[in-house]
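>> Question from a student workshop board

For tomorrow's exercise we were told to take the sequence and the ligand below, predict the bound structure, and bring the output to class. My setup keeps failing. Could a helper post the expected result so I can at least see what it should look like? The ligand is magnesium ion.
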Amino acid sequence: MIKAIFFDLDDTLLWDQKSIKEAFIATCRIAEERYGIDAEELESAVREAAKKLYSTYDTYPFTQMIGINPFEGLWGTFLDEIKEFKKLKEIVPAYRKDAWTAGLKKMGIDDADFGHELAERFPEQRRKLPFVYEDTFETLESLKGMYQLLLLTNGSPHLQNTKLEISPELVPYFDQIVISGDYGRGKPDPGIFEYALSKLSLAKEEAIMVGDNLMTDILGANRAGIKSVWINRHNKQRNEVIPAYEIQHLADLHTILEELNQN
Ligand SMILES: [Mg+2]
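>> Workshop helper replied:
Here is what the output should look like for this input. Compare the format with yours to find the bug.
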């Protein structure tokens, strides 16, 4: 009997990748206007520079373990209580500036002041551009009351809470919110799934995990013995991680839940 549904946040309920993409477009347009460079090419250059730079900091193993990606580093402020986040908070202002400046440089523009300006514009744009998938609310609405709902998200508590603050309609649907930065380890560590179960006093057979990421949501749920549902909205290829179920729309959850609860 399934009593609870665990939902991933980014790119499962919130369309984070679209928000990041749109923030890049808006910010790179400023550079296009200023210097006549191609906005899309600048975006690729900055993304590449950011990924490279992000992996050089001492905080990299920590960000990997908690699940904070380089683009989150481009807009998060990481005003978290936990010690390791303090280091990240110190690093990110220079990281942003350097990533944008390196991207500009790749385009033949040597202008660190402008790099700094763009680095500051990007977070403003990201905050202005939250996207929620169109089936998110109707699905949560239909499940609320029938199941306990738990949000299980990787990331900095401060940044994940910022995302929830700018899409405030989401929070009331959830009985519990578990953020990896608070717990100390991220998905796919089975410990965080066990912690989530304990928050609702449930056994692993009584929950199901829904997420878009095979390497975190699905792998972690599988390790913890929780049935996994891979939401594959954008027709991605599966890798070696095998979900119990695969769906393309959140509404398909109903069929799975009916089937599971018949037995
Ligand atoms: Mg996700």
